[in-house]
Write a structure and sequence with these properties.
The structure holds 2 protein chains of 2 kinds. Chain A has 6 helices and 15 strands. By secondary structure, chain A is α/β, with parallel strands linked by helices. Chain A has one domain: Rossmann fold, CATH 3.40.50. Chain A has a 9-stranded mixed sheet, sandwiched between helices. A two-stranded antiparallel ribbon of chain A has the order 2-5. In chain A, strands 3-4 form a two-stranded antiparallel sheet. By secondary structure, chain B is an alpha/beta fold. A 7-stranded parallel sheet of chain B has the order 7-11-6-1-4-5-12, with helices on both faces. In chain B, strand 16, helix 8 and strand 17 form a beta-alpha-beta unit. The chains are: A alpha/beta, B alpha/beta. At the A-B interface, helix 3, helix 4, strand 9, strand 11 and strand 14 of A face helix 5, strand 7, strand 9, strand 10 and strand 13 of B. Strand 14 of chain A pairs antiparallel with strand 10 of chain B.
Chain lengths: ~270, ~325
């Protein structure tokens, strides 16, 4: 089996702070990490590899040179091969252009190395939170998609996915090749060992530039190929005034708030 | 691409097993204002098994007309059947913009439509506006875990697509006397075109968690301390007829199932009342509850950021405060 996992390097959004004076994001000093949902996707892939002989996992990312760090990280926890799409022509891409570039890269890798049975990725990246890129890859490649997987296993020529719903969950399946995007799983991603980290550092990360991909249309890449434009960004304003009770008798404070809620017709 | 033909504003009213998701009706509220601004019609689009009643209801909520596609293949959501139906409808009727609820299925369908139609999609919007001159939608959405808001345009492509968070907009007033045309489109998708099959649907009725539609939510966080600690949260929820929610910290600690998680990586909610117990209020959680009408928080730490987004705050131990509140509610309700 051949599995491809899409990974993205993202700023750790839990570490982002707002400058109270300028009211803008403080990006400096924010660590870059492997998108946590991609780490879950990689773990799901690694679990398939654990029980399926002759399975390889290829990692694919797009970004500048420093994005290699997350590929190396992935190579230490189950990844076998890694590719980075990196070119000035790819800069400024929105999700439609990014998915087009990644789909074109996947076709290029497949032409050289063979077809993939499964293409996986996190349900969304924690910086953009769009959840669009992997789904759009499925459309570009003309293969089925299953989103928000909590678990995925392989049954013959089908992938079987547990997908959470409001009432419980669905077990859904599709013939491979297919795209599966992964939600938070019940299990934690495995940790690298000292030995797997050392081995990962020695592995080659192949860089795919625009010229390395044979079938790709420049007008569909970068800003030119992006239908959505960011008009402006701003930090959200919080204009709530909180009636905060800091009292010795906290039980009485609780009762007071209940009565305030009743008076305000909330209860 | 000539934009002249692209006139109306569509709201996709998602159904599952013939029942509409509330966000579909909610979107008719901002949809009305947007359609008026671009001098177009507000059209409800309903795809499902048997969904004429949903279309009638959408009209009562203010739609100028409804387009429905019915068939057994639409009784349950599938990317392929819904994707094919929506592409066929868009190609025929050419809407200027399509609003889709940002539910799990809505966020599965949106990118499929964007790719099929080679257009832009803005995900998970919390603000909607339109430029009257150009008809360009101005989509506002949070990014970076709610730390940043971005205004996104899709100026050179039609239709413009956006998924919109449930709970951000209120349902419009229902006018039961309102009627309008319901257009039926006969689109059928063969079984082998639907490539993803539901093998099994497990309904865990006892543990039904419907945070997105809840009127009242009582949520617990790190301060709850243990799985047993959720007992008092559940008791409060029972007294109020509320749904139990949780912060990421509580879910990650294994005290409660992920289905209860509220916030950026869980569910986005918009209840009338949200009671946050022992939740510090990380920006990811705050972003997920911003649509609530009223937020009450209980926390031992007087500097907890949750108080900044709350209407009422009680500084104190939730295990003392909640029993007192429960007692008071019972007393008031007799």
């Amino acid at each position: 089996m051949r599995i491809l996992v899409c990974v993205k390097q993202v700023p750790d959004t839990t570490e982002i702070k707002i400058d109270p004076v300028t009211n803008t994001l403080i990006r400096a000093g924010v660590p870059s990490i492997l998108n946590p949902f991609d780490a879950y996707a990689l773990e799901v892939a690694a679990r398939i590899k654990d029980v399926t002989p002759d399975t390889t996992i290829t990692l694919l990312s797009m970004g500048p040179e420093q994005a290699k760090a997350v590929l190396t990280e992935g190579l230490a926890v189950g990844g076998d091969f890694a590719y980075l799409c990196s070119d000035r022509k790819f800069g400024g891409s929105d999700t439609l252009a990014t998915s087009y570039i990644l789909a074109s890269a996947i076709k290029q890798i497949e032409a050289e190395e063979g077809k993939f049975d499964l293409i996986m990725g996190g349900k969304q990246a924690i910086d953009g939170d769009t959840g669009q890129t992997c789904v759009e890859i499925a459309s570009h490649l003309g293969i089925p998609q299953i989103t928000y997987a909590n678990e995925a296993t392989v049954d013959g020529d089908e992938v079987v996915v547990k997908r959470e719903s409001d009432q419980g969950y669905d077990m859904v399946s599709a013939k491979m090749p297919a795209v599966v995007t992964v939600n938070k799983t019940a299990f934690e991603p495995r940790y690298p060992t000292l030995r797997s980290k050392m081995a990962a550092r020695k592995k080659e990360i192949k860089v795919l530039t625009f010229d390395d991909i044979k079938e790709i249309d420049v007008t569909r890449c970068g800003l030119k190929g992006s239908p959505t434009k960011v008009k402006k960004t701003f930090t959200p304003v919080r204009n709530k005034t909180c009636i905060k009770l800091e009292e010795e008798d906290v039980a009485a404070a609780g009762k007071k708030v209940v009565n305030m809620l009743v008076d305000a017709k909330v209860l | 691409m000539s934009f002249e033909e692209y006139k109306n504003l569509w709201v996709f009213v998602e159904t599952e097993e013939n029942v509409a998701k509330p966000v579909g009706y909610e979107l008719l509220n901002p949809g009305r204002a947007l359609a008026d601004k671009i001098k177009g019609k507000l059209v409800a689009v309903v795809v499902g098994g048997k969904v004429e009643d949903v279309a009638k209801k959408a009209i009562q909520y203010g739609a100028d007309e409804a387009i429905i596609v019915e068939g057994d293949e639409y009784y349950n959501y599938s990317t392929d059947a819904f994707g094919i139906a929506m592409k066929t409808l868009v190609d025929k009727y050419k809407p200027s913009a399509v609003l889709v609820g940002a539910t799990q299925n809505g966020r599965d369908l949106g990118p499929r439509m964007a790719c099929d139609l080679s257009t832009g999609l803005t995900a998970d919007c919390t603000g909607l506006d339109v430029d009257e001159e150009t008809g360009n939608m101005i989509w506002t959405r949070p990014a970076f875990g709610g730390n940043l808001m971005a205004m996104i345009l899709c100026p050179d492509n039609r239709p413009q697509l956006g998924t919109v968070r449930p709970g951000v907009f209120k349902r419009p007033a229902l006018d039961e006397s309102r009627t309008a045309e319901i257009i039926r489109e006969d689109i059928h998708v063969a079984e082998d075109q639907i490539r993803v099959k539901i093998r099994e649907r497990i309904k865990e009725v006892a543990e039904a968690v419907n945070l997105e539609e809840a009127d009242i939510i009582v949520s617990g966080g790190r301060g709850v301390g243990s799985a047993d600690g959720f007992g008092i949260i559940r008791e409060m929820a029972d007294v109020l007829g509320a749904t139990v929610g949780a912060s990421r910290a509580a879910v990650d600690s294994g005290w409660i199932a992920h289905a209860h998680q509220v916030g950026q990586t869980g569910k986005t909610v918009g209840p009338k009342l949200y009671i946050a117990c022992g939740i510090s209020g990380a920006i990811q959680h705050a972003a997920g509850i911003a649509g609530s009408d009223c937020i009450v928080s209980i926390n031992k730490d007087p500097d907890a950021p949750i108080f900044e987004v709350s209407d009422y705050g009680i500084v104190g131990d939730l295990f003392t405060v909640l029993p007192a509140m429960i007692e008071e509610i019972k007393k008031i309700r007799g």
